[in-house]
């Protein structure tokens, strides 16, 4: 019985560690995508302002 409980706790601990690692990785990917989109949209808005002689709000 003791081995079963110990194994169960070990598995749950690893699941939690893997979940936290996954959350951290997703946060990093999310930050990268946001940074890329920010650059793309700022670049396109700058081109529009230049081409149409308008300013952003």
Task: Please render the helix and strand layout as text.
Blueprint: H1 2-52
Question: Can you tell me about this structure?
Answer:
This protein has 57 residues and is mainly alpha-helical. Helix content is 89%, strand content 0%. The chain is built from one helix and no strands. The protein has one helix at 2-52. The protein starts with a helix and ends in a 5-residue tail after the last helix. The mean pLDDT is 89.
Gross morphology is rod-shaped
- The string of secondary-structure elements, in order, is H
Determine the N-to-C terminus distance: 68 Å
Q: State the total count of DSSP E strands.
A: 0
State the oligomer.
single chain
What is the structural class? Answer: mainly alpha
Q: Strand fraction band? A: under 5%
Helix content: over 70%
Low-confidence stretches: none
Q: Mean of the pLDDT scores?
A: 89
Tally of DSSP helical segments: 1
How many strands, which pairing sense, and closed or not: the largest β-sheet? none
**Radius of gyration from the CA trace?**
24 Å
């Amino acid at each position: 019985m003791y081995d079963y409980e110990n194994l169960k706790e070990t598995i749950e601990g690893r699941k939690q560690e893997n979940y936290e690692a996954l959350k951290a990785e997703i946060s990093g990917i999310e930050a990268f995508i946001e940074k890329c989109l920010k650059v793309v949209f700022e670049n396109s808005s700058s081109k529009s302002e230049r081409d149409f002689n308008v300013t952003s709000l």
